[in-house]
Amino acid sequence: MDQGSKYNSEMDVSQSVFNTQAYYEFLKNVQELASNSPNISLINMNEVLMEKIKNSTSSRKITNLIYTNLEFNSIIEKNDFSGSYLTKAQTQWEKKLIKNFNLICTELNMPLAKKRSIVEGQELKRIWNELGTNVSDMKKFRPIFSTSELLEQILSLKCNNLSDLAVNSMTGLINVPISIKSLKDLKKQYERMSLDFFQSGLDENLNSVIEQEKHKNGVKVVEINDVILSKEFSKTGCTRSLRSKLWSQILNVNVGNLDIIYYNYLKQCVFEYDFLIDSIYYKDVKIKAVNDDQLFVFEDLLYQVLLMFARDTHVLKCYEEKSIQSPKGFIKLKNSTDLKHHPVIYPPNGFIPFDGFSMLVAPICYVFADPVLLYFIFRKFFVNHFYKLSIISSDPQSIVGLCALFENVLQSKDPKLFIQLRKMDIQPIKIAFKWIIRAFSGYLQSSQLLELWDRMLAFNSLEILPIFAAGIFLYRRQSLMSVPNKLHVESILDDLKSVRVVAILQLVFA
Fold it and tell me: Could you tell me which residue ranges the Rab-GAP TBC domain spans (predicted)?
């Protein structure tokens, strides 16, 4: 990074910190320390205050805030989002999504947004905690795009200069020059997942004493409230009773008064305006989550989160510095003589959801009961990780890179299995893609899914998803090698409810 870029990055982080409630609490704390310290003077003020500030709670919050902002900025700087033909592919994909959206509007003869009447807004407010009763006939609505459409778009990507190809084999379907880690590098990065370390989610029945000791250590980690320490501790899993606190610390989500005000503002936006995309979210929840035996109890929470999420312009932040254009609609300004229609970002958060997107919210409902905290935790999940699951870019953790990593890990660990599947005209990525894009939500038992997401957060990486996907193929290798055709392969991989996440990850890293 050149000096100019470094300076701009530091200024961005500083500005992000200055605009937070934590910073104002920090300043207030410094003022209180200065006024309540009897032995302080102009001579020793700096020394005395610095010592007191280091041990204060507000200082820890500022440290965590700086760390998470630097981490977010470093991801943007490290990854090249501007690969020429991948940028063009993303642009083409964006145009296709907007075309699909426009077709839905035309078919239904509905506007993108309309203002609710006072009566409608009051009724919605009255049933806010029972939004499932507000769902009318959803048959006429359809997803803007399916995961299979996105996969087809990715598989159509071809690199003209094959000499630049960064993958190790041409037997897979992902043929793009994207930088992915080797199996050796992955084993080094995920060393804490090896058999040498006790893992929550695997050994607790056999090692209850060790699990109890880990819980005690976890309590100490939570009390310290340090992002780096919380991540390191969670690399071997989170004990169930501490998961919510550890996730909050890792994501650095601290709900304060300003957050509650913003949450209520988003809620009010829902009461005032009816969006077409609201009905698409309703349909997604009804079809995906409500039909899941483990998730139907969260129906109303899912509606609340998704309706506010669609209106949250803070989400646009994760598209900055990247070659991603937010979709736009056109409006005519009120009380204006200008006949032109002016472009506005629609939906306001700039994100067009794929079929099944609501399943990325559902697992968080297991961990957080408070709807305000639940919302901000999900939003942080999205801006840190989940937005990458539906964009085409050269970022190794975009969906393209994750697909390439899956193929590379599976081929590296078991080339015979990969070749055998190819002989049966089976492309493993076509089976694994639906798992990866939904981060396995809806495919695993809830307890196992949370174990997987523990590691995703702790290692700050979506790579754990394709690694785990490859591990499932390895785990069921014997059955896969003995079946005669594609239909049998799909049936073997259809039900994942019995798999144990940690055991499979350790199989890959062995």
Answer: 237-460
